[in-house]
Design a protein that fits this description.
6 copies of one chain form a homohexamer. Chain A is of the alpha+beta class. Helix content of chain A is about 40%, strand content about 30%. Chain A is built from 2 helices and 4 strands. In chain A, the strands form 2 sheets. The first copy, chain A, has a two-stranded parallel sheet. In chain A, β3 and β4 form a beta hairpin. The mean pLDDT of chain A is about 95. β1 of chain D pairs antiparallel with β1 of chain F, so a sheet runs across the interface.
Chain lengths: ~70, ~70, ~70, ~70, ~70, ~70
């Protein structure tokens, strides 16, 4: 009964992409560890680029700088 | 000083329901483990149904299928 | 299908206490929001007192100071 | 490669404040533990005041009461 | 730069299985969403069966009951 | 009342280093956002190198390869 939490930057991921990620990750856990898909939860959270930092600055700043 | 994080699907939980969950969970921790409510934090996060997967598909897809 | 994550300081919580917290929190979510216990997950994580800070110092330091 | 998740109440934190927190926290981890800023991720999540509880009631209720 | 957190029950997952899950999940995010593996972090956390609840009881209790 | 969760690889961080990180991060939130240290929680979690992945492989594998 794995719980998976995925955080990505908010960049227009479509419902279809999110569905495919959920399916793919669930399959990985089933194939590698034998985890039951029926009790595998996957949650995708999108985070704004001005709330996500790497290298000491926000992703928004990185992208603005090019 | 427990920290509680509760994720639910975004289904129109009211402010009153959220307040009751916060009160109830805080009381459980006080009654069972003697935790001080004044330093018990409870955070409720609502997740869209197309970002929550179970059984390898999104909750949105499950519900659409009926 | 709520997911609940509870962090507490590592203070010798017993298996029985953890079971009661899991039962109690699951019941709160069922009673207040109508959530199905069969798909309610509750995870309890215990954190060492020298890895938990409040007021800018660790719980271990607070307790040592009395 | 530390991962830092910061949850704050949604109170109008500006992009500039969030950027400064990201920079400051990244510097603390570099200065104290020698962590490489280029692989230090910091995510800030803002939580509504009616979804955040302390002392068994929501922050929204606390503030309304004054 | 996705962050993935996977919680599983502590059931003797091997280092090899964990490595395969990390590889597989990273590939799903690259293939479906074009995410760069070099900034994709995956963390696996194992939780004791008496600290994980479902259906209002711990996994340990469920298993003991058979 | 910020909640801060910091995950680092398990690499022998000392209690003193953890205390300094807690103090430093608490100060950043006070100085930049005016957050009250008395209700600022900071939790540090250490993750084994074979449970932490980046670039599709574990940190343990990366280090072994040199």
């Amino acid at each position: 009964m794995p719980l998976v939490n995925i955080k990505i930057t908010r960049d227009g991921a479509t419902a279809e992409q999110k569905a495919k990620v959920i399916e793919g990750v669930t399959n990985v856990l089933r194939d590698v560890m034998g985890k039951n898909p029926q009790t595998t939860f996957v949650i995708i959270e999108e985070v704004d680029c001005d709330s996500w930092g790497i290298g000491g600055e926000t992703v928004a700043m990185r992208r603005a700088r090019g």
